[in-house]
Amino acid sequence: MQTETTTETKACATCTHFKAAADGNGECHRRAPQIVTFQVDENVKFESRFPAVAATDWCGEYSA
Fold it and tell me: pLDDT tens across 31-49, in order?
């Protein structure tokens, strides 16, 4: 007797925390955005951003 098994791909693309961008990748909204700093001319700028992830990435906090 042969049993059939199915495997579910738990990648970012199918996670409820994933917010897709136009290029197919996106952001992970599982946690609060992170503060990032960058320099523009002589000024330091601050922004908050969600982590950028590829649709094929995965983590231990996947949620269907």
Answer: 999 999 999 999 999 999 9
Q: What is the DSSP string of 4-31?
A: --------GGG-TTEEE-TTS-EEE-SS
CA 64, CA 5: separation in Å to the nearest integer?
Answer: 19
Query: CA 15, CA 54: separation in Å to the nearest integer?
Result: 12
Structure token pair of residue 50: 């969600």
pTM of the full structure? 0.75
**Is residue 26 assigned to a domain?**
yes
Number of domains the chain contains:
1
- CA–CA separation, 16 vs 38, rounded Å? 30
pLDDT in the model for residue 31: 97
